[in-house]
Design a protein that fits this description.
Layout (H helix, E strand, L loop, with lengths): L1 H15 L5 H24 L2
Helix pairs in contact: 1-2
Length: 47
């Protein structure tokens, strides 16, 4: 999970520096989405 958010932060920094295309940012955003979904599932199912 930490890797998902770290990768997302890296993509945002590269995009803000104009070193990444918007399409690549959108494709990489899927990892952040998976991280958020994992957190939601973890807190929803924890006992």
């Amino acid at each position: 999970m930490l890797e998902k958010f770290g990768y997302g932060a890296t993509l945002i920094v590269l995009y803000l520096q104009n070193r990444l295309h918007p399409q690549d940012l959108a494709l990489g955003g899927v990892d952040v989405l998976f991280g958020v979904l994992f957190l939601a599932a973890f807190f929803k199912t924890s006992s």
